[in-house]
Amino acid sequence: MNRASEIDQTKHSTRRRFMAASAALMTAPTLICAPRDASARAELQGSARPPFDRFKVGSFEVTILHVGGSVLDNVQSTFGVGVPADEFRALAEANFLPADKSFSALAPVVVNTGAEVVLFDTGISASGLIPALDAAGLKANQVDLVVLTHLHPDHIGGLRTGDAPTFPNAKIMLGRVEYDYWEALGNAQVKANVTPLVDRATFFKGDDPVARGITAVESFGHTPGHLAFLLESEHQKLMITGDAANHPVFSLARPDWVVRFDVDKAKAAQTRRTLFGRLADERIAFSGYHMPGAALGYVTREGDGFRYTPATYQFLLNG
């Protein structure tokens, strides 16, 4: 057999094998599409958030706890009171957000300074807070200080479990202006959660030190005595802003828009301009109690307001 005949025979043989294999596949589709055993199928799990995010600010270890949240309907009635509907809708759509709904997260912050464990705010209840603490490897009896940005129910509800303090070894720290305001009103939530712990409370005002490297910052308006807190360690900074701004777009891009939950609405708008103007100018990151995702980000000045940029890996580079 010459060389040409060998090549031709090889081509025919290869073609016959290919056609035979194709025919076998066509006559046996169940080999490809056989149904899986129902017990092996993965059930849909639904949306979920991680229970915490952790990173370093200088030598401080910061843990942001994610203890739930809620969907807000008719969001303009909360964040854009009196704003024309088409203007509100346009801002939402420009930022890829629905104009009729929003998600409000709850994000208490734990700071381990190396000398003390400091918890900022406590969520709606201990039943929401403790599982997040457990997931983060922290125990209630390890908390040395519980610092309150203000006394709205979603910030103080976890102070007590039944008739007992949730954090048995912790000192409570809060602003005097804030406590006096709510106590004078006879607020039921404050009387149930805060007043029983006053004997272990320390009161302070803006610019007072809270712990090593942590200073109170007046941010009145959302409530009459609302406070933010500046962390400083090894030339790195983080501001815990509480409810000074409660939405990454509506409260920051339009700081003058009226927010329904602000007690002193004009003062709250002024605080948003002052506080977040400082963060923008000094390039300080912040953690906002109701902010989305990791509740950690930055602001820059944009137009007459601010643009929010979520943090990505910046703090993870600190080890």
- Basic shape: globular
- Tell me the series of helices and strands, N- to C-terminal: HHEEEHHEEEHEHEEEHHEEEEEHEEE
Largest sheet data: 7 strands, mixed
CATH superfamily of the largest domain: Ribonuclease Z/Hydroxyacylglutathione hydrolase-like
Q: What is the CATH architecture descriptor of the largest domain?
A: 4-Layer Sandwich
Number of domains: 2
The termini sit apart by 73 Å
Q: What structural class should be given to the helix and strand makeup?
A: alpha+beta
User: Rg from C-alpha positions?
Assistant: 28 Å
What ranges have pLDDT less than 50 throughout 5 or more consecutive residues? none
> What level of helicity do the residues show?
25-40%
Q: What is the top-level CATH class of the largest domain?
A: Alpha Beta
DSSP strand tally: 18
Mean pLDDT: 91
Percent of residues in β-strands: 25-35%
Number of helices: 9
* Strand order in the largest sheet: 1-2-5-6-7-10-11
CATH fold-level assignment of the largest domain: Metallo-beta-lactamase, Chain A
Q: Could you explain how this protein is built, in words?
A:
- Helix content is 29%, strand content 26%.
- With 319 residues, it is an alpha+beta fold.
- It has two domains: 38 residues; 266 residues, Ribonuclease Z/Hydroxyacylglutathione hydrolase-like (Metallo-beta-lactamase, Chain A), CATH 3.60.15.10.
- The strands form five sheets. A seven-stranded mixed β-sheet has the order 1-2-5-6-7-10-11.
Layout of helices and strands:
Blueprint: H1 3-27, H2 30-33, E1 52-57, E2 60-65, E3 69-73, H3 76-79, H4 85-94, E4 101-105, E5 109-112, E6 117-120, H5 126-135, E7 145-147, H6 153-156, E8 160-161, E9 164-165, E10 171-175, H7 176-185, H8 188-193, E11 201-204, E12 209-211, E13 214-218, E14 227-233, E15 236-242, H9 265-282, E16 285-288, E17 297-302, E18 305-310
Parallel strand pairs: 6-7, 7-10, 10-11, 15-16
Antiparallel strand pairs: 1-2, 2-5, 3-4, 5-6, 8-9, 12-13, 13-14, 14-15, 17-18
